[in-house]
Amino acid sequence: MNGLNPDFDISLLSRIEDAGLNASAPPQQRWLDGWLLRLSPGKAKRARCVNAVAPGRRPLEDKIAACERAFTDAKLPMIVRITPFSVPADLDAALERRGLNRFDDTFVMVLPGLNSIPSVSLPAGATFQSLALEPFAQRVGALRGSPLAQRQAHAERLANSPVPFFAWELRRDGDTLACGQYALEDDVVGLYDVFTAPAARGQGLAGLLCTRLLADAARHGARHAYLQVEADNHAARSVYRKLGFAEGYAYHYRAHDPAGAR
Prior knowledge:
This protein is an alpha+beta fold. It has 2 domains: 108 residues, no CATH class; 124 residues, Aminopeptidase. The chain is 33% helix and 29% strand. An 11-stranded mixed β-sheet has the order 1-2-3-4-11-5-10-9-8-7-6, sandwiched between helices. Helix 2 links the parallel strand 3 and strand 4. Helix 4 runs antiparallel to helix 5. The radius of gyration is 18 Å and the shape is globular. The protein starts with 9 loop residues before the first helix and ends with a helix. The mean pLDDT is 95.
């Protein structure tokens, strides 16, 4: 997919892009001539990348060089996130000429109405439980095998988020089968960090969890939903399509060394 899906209202997609930026805001961020630089040491690339959201006044090459210096000072590889909203419109081509390589194509999937969320039946012995944000960051980090520093950065970002997050897990016999959280901004909800334990996959648990998250968000006033999923994660995209989500737009990242930036 290139650009914005014409089946969706562009104003809704713009709101969703803003909501996604707000939901991923780390404490370590700064503005540079209309670009939002995020310098978190955590795992999420959206919290440690450049978002080119406004034109600014400095020459493009000068601005890119200034970004590189900022990331070097933060001891992070420079990553630039490219969306249909990026400014200038030819930024992607300019970065390619500069030797930054494209990686991790991602879809923003959208569910434009939360009017009819089906009820779900849990597996025998399973229960949904809410989680505080710091324990959630530790729980999902442990399931992913993330190092302690990344779990701590995730917890810090959630604790300082400008929008509220709500976390849930699906448990059975003392074990976490799946977990996830949502960020709520006005009537827009974003699903984040949906993860199923490897031993529990293939049982439809991600769909059950997402349905629970959406139902809870709807009770808090959500009317539209979004999520972000890598383009090659076909299993997850299939789950989300069954819930009514469709691709609204795509984005990708660029870095000199994608392997070192993941």
